[in-house]
């Protein structure tokens, strides 16, 4: 849901080419998180055990579950306290 919203908002605001590039950047960041999940900021003040990686204008919230990375949400400027 988050990714579809981000992609279509990007198409509407910036055009398909830029939206595709940003979408690809998000997936590259997912790969980076999977390879080294502890390199990004812990945000226990938002939710215990969560971490955040900022990619462009969006924040990727994730947690580790038995060393498996679970992407929880990808949020823009929305209030994380309400949406996580």
Strand count, sense and barrel status of the largest sheet are:
4 strands, antiparallel
Give the terminus-to-terminus CA distance. Answer: 14 Å
The CATH topology is YaeB-like fold
What's the CATH architecture? 2-Layer Sandwich
Give the helix tally. Answer: 3
State the secondary-structure class. alpha+beta
The low-confidence runs, each spanning 5 or more residues with pLDDT under 50, are none
Order of secondary-structure elements:
HHEEEEH
State the domain count. 1
Oligomer: single chain
Supply the CATH class: Alpha Beta
The percent range for strand residues is 25-35%
The value of Rg in angstroms is 13 Å
- Helix % is 40-55%
Count of beta strands: 4
Strand order of the largest sheet: 1-2-3-4
Shape call: globular
Organism: Gynuella sunshinyii YC6258
Keywords: Toxin-antitoxin system
Pfam family, one: ParE_toxin
Protein name: Plasmid stabilization system protein
